[in-house]
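Regression report. Comparing outputs from two consecutive submissions.

Submission 1:
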Amino acid sequence: MSDNVERAVVIGAGTMGAGIAEVLAKAGVSVTLADVNGQVLERGLAKIHSSLDKAVERQKLTAEQAQAAKGRVSTSSGEERYASADLVIEAVPELMDLKKQLFQKISAVNEGAILASNTSSLSVTELAASARRPERVIGLHFFNPPPIMPLLEIVRAEQTSLATLDRCLALATRIDKSPIVVRDIAGFATSRLGIILGMEAIRMLEQGVASAADIDRAMELGYKHPMGPLKLTDLVGLDVRLSIAEHLTRELGPQFTPPPLLRQLVRAGKLGQKTGEGFYRWVDGKPVAK
């Protein structure tokens, strides 16, 4: 089955949104990267261009392919592009009300588009209930950084039609991702496993079991994880992981309860790579053990 996606809008020009837009553009989709903040839009577009240039340097793309992908990405701080999109992916902060407002607004001007959420933990079924055509709503959970990570977690809401699912599976193949399909249960598959491992690693650090670097090294070398759980938490953002852990605690139980150390670091503004310090210090984009 063809995905029939020629034009897409990605809402949210942060790390995830810019990365998703790049992935789509490389696959031949015309993409509008949208954000209400003009400066964030400029940084997002610059990030896409820089990433494509690096792909040429690593011989992952030809110069011509990179230039063509750049030409497929435009930016917008308005809503004029929603009406003509075949696919809209939101990559905004993990706030249910914000996401529902977006889906209500978009489905009012475009009932035919697939509306996808990049949420890592919120209910896609609840999001779908806010749209005029809930059968066209689905979760497309990309992983950071989207141009490199091969996994695409496809979350089927209670209302998602088989046709919508099939189109998204076809799109996954087109954008060179390996999809898994999961039911819409809190945390899906990846966040439940990732958060439980991350919270336990933080508790181990609290208890003095080992240093952050050694806990991470244990998982990287002993279990072949590409990145340890504390380093990954720094990369995702301690505030983001705290929010997800609190959500999963409410939905699934106390095994996801955030450790006090995580709350203390968030209160101190030590959110990981984006602030320069979390469980590591970050220098020139690279982690340095404390």
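Submission 2:
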Amino acid sequence: MTKNQGRNRPNSAYKSKPSRDFDEPAEGWVWGRHAVLAAIANPRRDVKRLLLTLNAQREVPDGTAFEDMKPDAISAHLPDGAVHQGFAMRTTAPEAESVNAVVDPTHGILVVLDSVTDPHNVGAVFRSAAAFGVRAIVMQDRKAPPLFGAVAKASVGATETIRQVRVTNIADTLVGFREAGRFVIGLDGDAQTTLPDAIAQHGGPGLVIVMGAEDKGLRPRVAENCDLLVSIPTSGAIESLNISNAAAIALYSAFAARPAR
């Protein structure tokens, strides 16, 4: 992995892009009690169908339109193995937020996912982001999973509260964040600087935490456009942490270091 400590800051121009210029399906299924109830409460989703068992119907707000279905009938609409708990919704995806809306370093910590495609991992990162006050999650448009199905289920409703930002080029986006005054750290198991040391020196609302795919890590150009690469210190008993675990540790570290409000 390319190390970038001490490298000069690039001086390239930064351009935003439309918030929905990517190949995300227009509609999809969300299932599971927490995911569906949170999606019902999210005005940024347009509900197309709501399938509920008798028990599930008692938990939705009065006046909510739904279709009464048996559990097996709901399962027939969903992928094999989907654990729906009597709740399933056909809905649009939440509208993505623009890069310009989150670039200001005073607006809060950002998480950037570089080539992270596993929906369970993405959902788990959304859940940790909600727990530790992240402003938004930035993902690459045509490589990140849409906010349906397993992503929404694993997030336990966090996809409805944490905003997403979709971009064409992760590396160029990091350049823009740095030029705006944000400090960008990338997680790299081989980095000499540790996460606690980096948080102690550079933690704050302008922090950006970049995480790569579990098998390949950060892509070279993405790593090169971080201000600093950092590692999470461990006992060494295992080779690496799952990205969802690494995200929870990194975001807790950043959250705990913030001054009490």
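Expected: both submissions complete independently.
Actual: both completed, but the second showed a warning that disappeared on reload.
Relevant detail on submission 2: The longest helix spans residues 243-257.
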